[in-house]
Design a protein that fits this description.
Jelly Rolls, 96 residues, 9 strands, single chain, five-stranded antiparallel sheet
């Protein structure tokens, strides 16, 4: 990989209290860093893990992000998503 066909993106996202996303996959390498609140994540058939501010996790390309949700029903969860993907590919694709 010489980097000429790669794009790096950083997004700040937030889940409202009780918020979540459907199961999905990411093209490329994805790193998630929790800024506020607590985030529950499950990759493939691994265990669900809860991440709190200052913690991060890695999602390998096209692995199943089976669970992604706010751990709290009362407070928001804010997090940074850092991705390295090939130019022209969508960042997220359906779980199928």
């Amino acid at each position: 990989m010489n980097g000429q066909e790669l794009v790096v993106t950083v997004q700040e996202l937030e889940y409202a209290p009780g918020g979540q996303s459907d199961a999905h996959r990411h093209n490329g390498c994805t790193f998630v860093y929790v800024l506020e609140g607590a985030l529950v994540a499950k990759i493939d058939d691994g265990p669900e893990k809860t991440y709190t501010p200052g913690q991060m996790f890695y999602e390998p390309p096209l692995h199943l992000h089976a669970a992604s949700r706010n751990a709290s029903q009362a407070k928001p969860a804010r997090f940074l998503v850092f991705r390295v993907i090939e130019k022209g590919k969508p960042a997220t694709v359906p779980a199928q």
